[in-house]
User: Fold this.
Amino acid sequence: MEHKIIEKKWQDYWYNNNLFKASDDSEKPKFYSLVEFPYPSGAGMHIGHVRAYSGLEVVSRKKRMEGYNVLFPIGFDAFGLPTENYAIKTKIHPREITDKNINVFTKQLKSCGFSFDFDRVIDTTDENYYKWTQYIFLKLYNAGLAYRSHTYVNFCPSCKCVLSNEESQGGICDRCGSNVIQKEKDVWFLKITEYAQKLLDGTEGLESNPRVKTEQINWIGRSEGAHIDFKLKEANDALRVFTTRADTIYGVTFMVIAPEHPILEKYEHLIKNLDEVNKYKEEATHKSEFERVELQKNKTGVKLIGLTAINPISSKEIPIYISDYVMMGYGTGAIMAVPAHDSRDYEFAKKFGCEIIPVISGSDTLPYTDIEKGNMINSPLIDGLSVKEAIPTMISKISELKVGERTVNYKMKDWAFNRQRYWGEPIPIIYCDKCGIVPVPYEDLPVKLPFIKDFEPNENGESPLSKVESFVNCTCPKCGGKARRETDTMPQWGGSSWYFLRFTDPKNDKEFASYEKMQKWLPVDWYSGGMEHVTRHLIYSRFWNEFLYDMNLVPVQEPYKKRGLCGLILGSDGSKMSKSKGNVIDPLDIVDQYGADVLRLYILFISDYEMATPWNNESIKGCARFLDKVEALDSMVDKNSHEYSKSLKVLINQTIKGVSSDIDNSKFNTAISKLMILVNAYSEKESVTLLDYEVLLKLLNPYCPHMAEELWHRYHDDSIQFEPYPTYNENDLIEDTCLMVISINGKVRDKVEISRGLSDDEVKEIVLSRDRVKSYIESGYKKIIIIKDKIVNIVV
RNA sequence: GGGAGAGUGGCGGAAGGGUAGACGCGAUGGUCUCAAACACCAUUGGAGCAAUCCGUGUGGGUUCAAGUCCCAUCUCUCCUACCA
Assistant:
């Protein structure tokens, strides 16, 4: 069949007639299937996109046939670095590049025949969209969940730009490849930590692969323990630590604080070796991520002279060190060091000659970190207790004395939310000399991104927007005086944190989405995407949704009911596809050569949907042959027969059942193999009935809709897209006879066709009378096990 | 260091404790062709003429029966990382 002609024909038909439009007022049950919307890069659609969309595409087409009102939307997450970098290089404006890329992408999506509702396309860089991204930011700000703080961040000294953790992976700047350092800057944070427990609880009900849950749980990183205050000898103040091991408090022989710890500045005047301390601090902040990891085992630090802590339980005086093995970002940025029972503290103590006091019996070799075995020693208040008893006992003691309390700590950190970039949503904040930080009033949104030509950040690492005076200068909404705008923009993750809400009502200019429409469509029934977004986008978007839910602006607490995973397609050499390796497969080449139907079929047949799998240019031929076979069946169809062929009835029923449940479980590969088996069975016959053939086409339609539609129209006038999905008859799933496998001592020796449902005695009689069996049990047998209609095992 | 997942033919991969290798690719032989490509038919885990034996990373175990369950161990991939 000429795929180029028929694919074009049916795509025009579907898209021109808006066949996949989701209806806001249909009586049918709703189904919201969502794929992670793409970043419209200049390189166009990648083979990975095809796999990602083909999965839910099949689900969505099937759901429509099953009578659901399906919302299967697509959009573009178009703000971001690659476009901005491309703009810097080519001097073409990001707006122009984005529009062009979105156009190309849309064409490519349509050339695959994906059944997205193209009436609901959203573009995060459209001011009618980012207006609401800014609106939600203001909501967060007004709720106290967006705050500004002066702190250390990743900074690229060459680009003079602050980077997020994502943009500085491995301590290397994404843009120029220089080593990233830590620099003190003003940073906007979103207080995602306030939602840590809710996010943790919310993972409970999510339908998904266990990996998705575990990774989120680990990322949130809840740990139970206590805050303990260690008084300072030289000042009326205390150093607060977080610990999960309150039991070891008698073993504390020193304290360690992070180089960025505020106590250093606060008590500068008391520190006698300030020069040495500051020098260490300077070095630590300039260490790249790479160096910190490299030097992991080699602990460094400086003892503070002039500051001493006092153990609140033993009253012992203990020294304080500064070292970069303690992180400001976790717990309180200070620890009580117990070298006898913590390997990091032990290494440090060995190097710096600190005292080591064991407080748990059980081993002669230190550090001893097993909490299961051993009892407390050298610990007057808790001697003799096990570790597990000692922890709560000591925590109660500490709260009694009011020097600390039970607490829960989360590994997750607040979300650094500003970037010194042009191509992002402007943060809607104004700075007034009189009034301080003033949020832009809701009615003044959007704060539009001005159209400029120079996208480079300035010398001080300030956003390109800081150079645009017409943007920066403004009046204070509170006092009407002169004021300045925030010139930083939001990160990549902003617009994508709520896009699934917008799809329910994409053109609304009064609200980000109407409550009624969200009520109709939410939650997302099936959200499909890659593992790489599980600890970022998935957490971020759940956070925004939960926040909006608490504000009564969204009807569901958790936005996603089910999260499906899609694995990577690797190059045929088994490594990640990349231009430099030259192993990139362009999906459009495949569409051109074999057609969209073959590509869609093969990308799902290639392996289990969740697994990473290498592409294979040879194997795809099998799928092309399969479709040829389907078409060849057309000439065998007996148009006058509207019942199943007798000999195919059971197989057809089994196939309907199997294919359907495979799709529901994202086992697209085995569903396709079942269709192949069915087609092979058809091909062996002289002719098939019209009904046989129609069922096949319907089952095939979600995968290869162009072909199914074309062949369907040879017998019908209407589209196949909304034909009822085939159902099976429970009574027609099994044959009257079954193949009984006979094994002797667990090894298959014989097989016999018998009628189904025979009693054990009847089976025994048949089996034992067989010559082949007799030859094995001449001298009798010990035992015979019969599994009805399946297998017999004789133990000799 | 911590967590998760995975090891099955030449390759991609199938197998609710019950015929290991479904389905597809590739390969071999054949038909068609002057020839090739396509297509079609047959074979295809290994050894053996055969009966049969051996086979799911490795070593144990449970069971009438183990790729599947249990214990130990090795390797690979991903995530995370001095997490106190």
About this structure: The first helix of chain A runs from residue 3 to 16. The CA atoms of residues 201 and 217 of chain A lie 9 Å apart. The two ends of chain A are 59 Å apart (CA to CA). DSSP finds 25 helices and 30 strands in chain A.
